[in-house]
């Protein structure tokens, strides 16, 4: 990620916190400036519009997820790679709760100015999941649906992580990882 000024980072962090609590629609540039402790002009100097601010924030967040799952997969293949990727994604959700909440709310929106950019990164994340899914030898008829399968695994980890943090925070990372893997294991494990 490009190096950012302290002001720009403060603005992005403030926008993330506010949007996670109030949604993007319920967050104003004035709110962001106030939370970041900067003048409203500084927000507009760094981001010409609210759409530009949130596009950068979301692209940065999905970029973090893509790098997380790519690193987790690294030298592993098949089911072990998926296990590692789910665990790493859950760790990222736990470490970045506001980002996870925002992504869960925005990833499937189609009416946003940044949707095309977000879709490209989403496909990058799903592409990382497709590699080990394909290695688990799914039936041939699944080839045309691997992106849906990958989206299901990604979604299970993201939403499972939010469910954990909001409703079952007493659970350990290991328990939640096992639970998400159990939920997705059906055909993948039986063919691994």
UniProtKB/TrEMBL annotation:
Database matches in Gene3D superfamilies: Tetracycline Repressor, domain 2
Keyword match Transferase: no
PROSITE patterns noted in UniProt: HTH_TETR_2 (PS50977)
Keywords from the UniProt entry: DNA-binding, Transcription, Transcription regulation
Residues within the DNA-binding region(s): 28-47
Protein name: TetR/AcrR family transcriptional regulator
Cited Pfam families: TetR_N
Organism of origin: Arthrobacter gengyunqii
PANTHER family named among the record's database cross-references: HTH-TYPE TRANSCRIPTIONAL REGULATOR BETI, HTH-TYPE TRANSCRIPTIONAL REGULATOR RUTR
SUPFAM superfamilies referenced in this protein's UniProt entry, alphabetically: Homeodomain-like
Domain HTH tetR-type: 5-65
